[in-house]
Design a protein that fits this description.
The complex is a heterodimer. By secondary structure, chain A is an alpha+beta fold. Chain A contains 4 helices and 12 strands. Chain B has one domain. The chains are: A alpha+beta, B mainly alpha. Strand 8 of chain A pairs parallel with strand 1 of chain B.
């Protein structure tokens, strides 16, 4: 069979936009497929490994004795491992997501505290229980998340309260509650990437990037 | 003002009312009331998500019908012929939602996938499940889809 030394093959997710580009080479009777790029989603597990963790695309290299065998290996790999299809999720993965969520919350709170603690009293004395459907499904124990309390002279000003990780439309939602208004922190990043928090309020249809100045403005407007 | 703008306005008004009750409960340390109002807000999110989805569904049905009508008005019989099969299904439930979406955008593209995701969430909620929703992103997503999915 004629086959060039090097060619690119694309694998598509079933009825989804995920697309994995693979470079196939043929050397010394061994067929080698090296993943180049994933259009969307993420790779969760290296072939043959049981632990799930975000994986770099370039780490995926498969070998086979024939082109057909290599093609089938990649096809099977794409079917099972790309995206967040329920079949590829296990309790390790769910636990990783929960830990990642906790870290993102801690980082956000730290950032807020560093930005305003010279002006307001900032504490994380209250807690909210996290026991989402995915955690129940994989028999993970409920856990608690801190609620950030920002108070100033004259009374309570603001609470920052985590609402959910597995949510429709984003990679986590945290509410910012004041006595007069509600704001929505939404992480629009993909899992595995750096957080990208944006802030929505009921008066604007477009989100604003979250900055300390924006928070100071909210606190100023809602002062009791 | 579109139907989505109108719905968004009422959603935010109700949510703000419940959020101020939740705020008061947290600030006074009333844990059970805090949980109650947080749950009310979550249920309100789900109800409005379904409400928004019905309006998006209606928009998709209307726009897909226009595409079929346009196909039926082609002069060439050869080009008009494939559309004849769809004519009887214009507003029939036998033509599924995602098939209608496929008349408006290419399967696999971003808009198609977003509707599919929303549709799955809609089915989860409608059949007794629950979902936590980021309504601001859903509202802006629905508005974008309404503009993007046109005949």
């Amino acid at each position: 069979m004629f086959f060039p030394d090097r060619r690119r093959v694309e694998f598509y997710g079933t009825d989804t936009p995920e697309r994995l580009e693979v470079e196939v080479t043929h050397q010394d009777d061994v067929w080698i497929g090296r993943a180049l790029r994933l259009s969307k989603g993420r790779l969760l597990r290296a072939p043959g490994e049981s632990t799930t963790k975000p994986l770099k695309v370039e780490e995926i290299v498969l070998r086979a004795d024939s082109y057909n065998q290599l093609f089938n290996k990649f096809r099977k790999f794409c079917k099972v491992e790309i995206g967040e299809d329920i079949s590829s999720i296990d309790s390790d993965h769910v636990n990783d997501r929960v830990q990642d969520w906790k870290q993102r919350i801690d980082r956000l709170y730290e950032w807020i505290s560093n930005g305003i603690e010279h002006l307001y009293e900032v504490s994380a004395a209250d807690e909210v229980q996290m026991n989402e459907e995915m955690m129940q499904k994989f028999h993970l124990r409920p856990t608690t998340l801190p609620i950030l309390r920002v108070s100033g002279v004259g009374g309570m000003l603001l609470f920052v309260k985590p609402k959910g990780l597995w949510i429709v439309g984003a990679n986590g939602r945290i509410d910012l509650l004041t006595s007069a208004s509600t704001y929505f922190f939404v992480d629009v990043s993909e899992y595995g990437a750096a957080s990208n928090w944006v802030l929505y309020d009921s008066k604007r249809s477009r989100p604003q990037p979250f900055t300390i100045d924006l928070l100071k403005g909210i606190l100023g407007n809602d002062r009791i | 003002m579109t139907v989505f703008d109108h719905l968004a306005k009422t959603y935010y008004e109700f949510d703000q009312h419940l959020a101020s009750l939740e705020f008061e409960a947290i600030s006074r340390g009333w844990n059970r009331k805090e949980q109650k109002y947080a749950q009310f807000r979550a249920q309100n999110d789900q109800a409005y998500f379904l409400y928004f989805f019905t309006r998006l569904e209606d928009h998709i049905t209307n726009q897909a019908a226009l595409v079929i009508d346009r196909g039926m008005s082609l002069r060439s019989w050869k080009r008009r012929s494939p559309w004849r099969e769809l004519r009887s299904l214009r507003t029939s439930r036998r033509l599924g939602l995602m098939s209608r979406v496929a008349l408006l955008t290419e399967p696999g593209r971003r808009d198609y996938s977003t509707v599919k995701d929303y549709y799955e969430d809609r089915n989860t909620i409608a059949h007794g499940g629950t979902a936590t929703i980021s309504m601001p992103t859903v509202i802006s997503g629905m508005k974008r889809l309404r503009n993007a999915l046109r005949a």
